[in-house]
């Protein structure tokens, strides 16, 4: 098993380095776990990743943006499944498949996701920073449920169901990051099934 803190990458001179944002984020997340989120500065992260401060800020304008940044590809994959699903596929099956596809992560992405979620679960200010991203998740689910239920996307039933599914998914992932050493999709799908069993959907 690798050490939780990777060695800082050497700073290269001359031609600009190619930056892998996910690698930078993983280095930062490991550093947060060892040294503390509040105690770590963006300058610390730039030095750790072997890149300039200005380069770092081009990819991540703030520490909260770095923590939340890895969520976007997950949401994009979920969006693609919901948009392309056959009308004949049951709502539960589409949602479960969207969750499973969106959470199909490489080993490094899995580690980063776990560290991100543990941090999010311990810092209310970080949750507040990401509300716009959670609202986008709600809107995506509302659009899908409105199409399937034949109801307005801003109607009460669709609004509440979209909120419930989004909240259950996020809550399940926070729980997974703290308690489960496996992959996240089965935990999130189990939470979906628990919710739908109460709804009857």
Protein model, in words:
With 201 residues, this protein is mostly helical. The chain folds into 2 domains: 1-62, Homeodomain-like (Arc Repressor Mutant, subunit A, Orthogonal Bundle), CATH 1.10.10; 70-199, Tetracycline Repressor, domain 2 (Orthogonal Bundle). It contains 11 helices and no strands. It has helices at residues 21-35, 42-49, 53-59, 63-69, 71-84, 91-102, 107-122, 124-129, 131-149, 156-179, 185-199. The longest helix has 24 residues, at 156-179. The protein is elongated, with a radius of gyration of 19 Å. 27% of the residues are buried. The model is unreliable at 1-16 (pLDDT under 50).
Radius of gyration: 19 Å
Structural class by helix and strand composition: mainly alpha
The succession of helices and strands, N to C, reads HHHHHHHHHHH
- Give the helix proportion (percent range): over 70%
Q: Given this structure, which CATH class of the largest domain is correct?
A: Mainly Alpha
Q: Which CATH architecture of the largest domain is right?
A: Orthogonal Bundle
Count of alpha/pi helices: 11
- Number of beta strands: 0
Mean pLDDT: 88
CATH domain topology of the largest domain = Tetracycline Repressor, domain 2
Amount of beta strand:
under 5%
Segments where pLDDT lies below 50 for 5+ residues? 1-16
**How is the biggest beta sheet arranged?**
none
Number of domains: 2
Brief overview:
The protein is mainly α and 201 residues long. The chain has helices at residues 21-35, 42-49, 53-59, 63-69, 71-84, 91-102, 107-122, 124-129, 131-149, 156-179, 185-199.
